[in-house]
Amino acid sequence: MKNNFTFCFISFFTVQFAISQTNVEKWIKGQVTINNVSPVEGVNITNTSSKVMVVSDAYGHFSILSKEGDILSFSAINYEPLRKFINRQEFNLGSITVNLTLKTIELNEVVINKHSDISAENLGIISKDQIKLTTAERRLQTAGDFKPIHLLALLGGKLPFDPIINAINGKTKRLKKEVSVEKKEILMVKIENLFENQYYIEPLKIPQELIKGFQYYCVENPDFAKSLNDNNKTLCKFLIVGLASEFNENQLYNEK
């Protein structure tokens, strides 16, 4: 009888200890990447249990208070949303890595215009010198970009309060990051359509598994990014040779 009581007593406290362990919270560090190569900045990470939210930094790093079994929700503009379950191994290590994927836009119908000279500009619908803004740029324009020089206009009642409020609460800074991310994504689409994979492998000597990383390396270069935006394929081919040489040298140095 005494042995049974002792066994029940030990079992009770073992179960209680196990339950208490699952309720322990600690800081989980992580990194958000795309294609397992490039870090993603500005991703909103939310613990769905505690509703705590953090944002990934310029290196894709973040730190969030979580328990084993919690579910983290990852969301960002132009990326597919993702929900991540924290398992026991990840909780014990205190570290996780999450890989996001870009959103894909499906077109229901594609119409080829035989009259390429007919455009909205030629028809007078919009002016030829009108600046075309991306989605992120329009959001930033709507929010307003407050600068110290605008203070005089604000005091004179010639500027709305929205720009300064957005500057204080960090909305303007966040929108600027979104513009930067969007521009890089547009460049990535352009460079993917510019060269075939075989071009990277043969003349440039880029390993197939590093092609995506090399493309990110290229669009980070200001001169190459400008030539890509200008659709100057000749200059792109000239610049990419030097960038490939630098990229391969860095890979050899890192391996050493």
* CATH architectural category of the domain at 26-100: Sandwich
Mean pLDDT: 75
Question: Can you say what the CATH homologous superfamily of the domain at 26-100 is?
Answer: Carboxypeptidase-like, regulatory domain
**What kind of assembly state do the chains in view correspond to?**
single chain
Shape: elongated
> CATH topology of the domain at 26-100, which one?
Immunoglobulin-like
Helix content: 40-55%
Q: Report the β-strand fraction as a percent range.
A: 15-25%
The helix count comes to 10
- The helix/strand class is alpha+beta
Given this structure, which CATH class of the domain at 26-100 is correct?
Mainly Beta
Please report the distance between the alpha carbons of the first and last residues: 68 Å
Unreliable runs, pLDDT <50, ≥5 residues?
149-161
Gyration radius over CA: 26 Å
In total, the number of strands is 8
Listing every helix as H and every strand as E from the N terminus to the C terminus, the arrangement reads: HEEEEEEEHEHHHHHHHH
Q: Characterize the main sheet.
A: 4 strands, mixed
Keywords: Carboxypeptidase, Hydrolase, Protease
Organism: Flavobacterium aquicola
GO molecular function: carboxypeptidase activity
Pfam family, one: CarbopepD_reg_2
